Amino acid sequence: MNLVKMYLESRAWVEVNLCNLQNNVKAFQSVLPKECKIMAAVKANAYGHGAILVATHLQEYGVTHFCVASVQEGIDLRKAGIKGDILILSYTPKDQLDLLIEYDLIQTIVDMEYAFMLREFQKNLRVHVGIDTGMHRLGERAERIEEIAKIWEFKNLHIEGIFSHLCVADSLESEDVHYTKEQIKKFNQAIETLKAKGKSSFATHLQGSYGVLNYPECQYDYARLGISLYGALSSSKDQTKVNLDLKPVLTLKSRISCIKHLKVGEKVGYGLAFQAIEESDIAVVSIGYADGIPRNLSERGYVLCHGKKAPIVGRICMDQLFIDVTKIPESKTNDEVVMIGSQEKENISAEMVADCVGTISNEILSRLGNRLERIVTTPILFQSDPCK
Ligand SMILES: *Cc1c(COP(=O)(O)O)cnc(C)c1O
């Protein structure tokens, strides 16, 4: 009842389709090697979907491994009752290291200098060793494997995994495929070298979404899935080797708060950027750039209203935006408007919004703001198998 109430009162909200989330988990399980487990990337509020909501349900679907970007994200999950492994993919400052222990979080070793710092901390820590195979972001360089191997001698560090990250796995251009294969090779060599030195009981992981979709032949212990688990690709232009039946989990909606009837020549909003060239009905929608709608979607994008496309006009404000509903005369105050998702026969994907403003869906989704309510739309309470 609570959910229904919230939904009715929201000015703007995110609907999370759990059937689609479960569908995506199953789709990946069907292509991942038997021994390979999903490590769900639930950083950045689960790419805007709501980290606690998503992780809680993923846990129900049998997902036991999660990765986040910060200690605080890990703590939030623990406080919400998330049990399995939680890996922090980035740097944790010295004065927050005690939190890793308190909340049983696994820390990434971002380079040798960081490994020494963790050793000085002296208390026992669970860690995964990051290895840089060519992205040159986090991880110690793979060429320095002899030094990396010394981390195993740091008695307070329990090395449970080693991993690397691919940086052009989304591209099927031959140059990029070559680069990715080199990264895979370097990672495998690092594993072999460590094993030859008698270090063995560590898990391995390399692939993110595109690593799995374009290099399904790889066999590691985990696949760190983010964007694809949410049923999106980064860009609608992306082709992948494996085509899974992934379904978008998120729908972003808002409401019409009022409608203005404009005379010819009247202008709208900041900068008076839109002018009515005919008598127009302009609806004000209660969502804006502070909710994560890119401001430069102004005058470019559209939304769905009564199953029809309504262009975004004028400048997008912090908390509202304008749409032209002249051709949708049935529009009225409080009507639902779809920013991302389907309505009747129309669909606006996160990829389409991203393409429209020259970015990737990851950015669009992960920036969806905290003001948005996150609501489960699956009628899970009412049917024994609602996803059928
Ligand atoms: C965010 C992240 C992922 C998930 O990437 P997707 O492309 O969204 O699947 C995987 N690995 C690392 C290191 C990340 O930072």
Summarize this structure as a short list of keywords or feature phrases:
388 residues, nine-stranded parallel sheet, nine-stranded mixed sheet, elongated, alpha/beta, binds pyridoxal-5'-phosphate
Please outline the helices and strands.
Blueprint: H1 2-9, E1 12-16, H2 18-31, E2 37-41, H3 43-47, H4 51-60, E3 65-68, H5 71-79, E4 85-88, H6 97-102, E5 106-109, H7 112-121, E6 125-132, E7 140-141, H8 145-149, E8 157-163, H9 174-196, E9 203-205, H10 209-214, E10 222-225, E11 250-262, E12 267-268, E13 274-275, E14 280-285, E15 302-305, E16 308-313, E17 321-324, E18 336-343, E19 346-348, H11 350-357, H12 361-366, E20 373-376
Parallel strand pairs: 1-20, 2-3, 2-10, 3-4, 4-5, 5-6, 6-7, 6-8, 8-9
Antiparallel strand pairs: 1-11, 11-14, 11-18, 12-13, 14-17, 15-16, 16-17, 18-19
Describe the structure.
The structure is a single chain. By secondary structure, this protein is an alpha/beta fold. The chain is built from twelve helices and 20 strands. Strand 3, helix 5 and strand 4 form a beta-alpha-beta unit. It is elongated and about 80 Å long. The model has no long low-confidence stretch (mean pLDDT about 95). The chain binds pyridoxal-5'-phosphate.
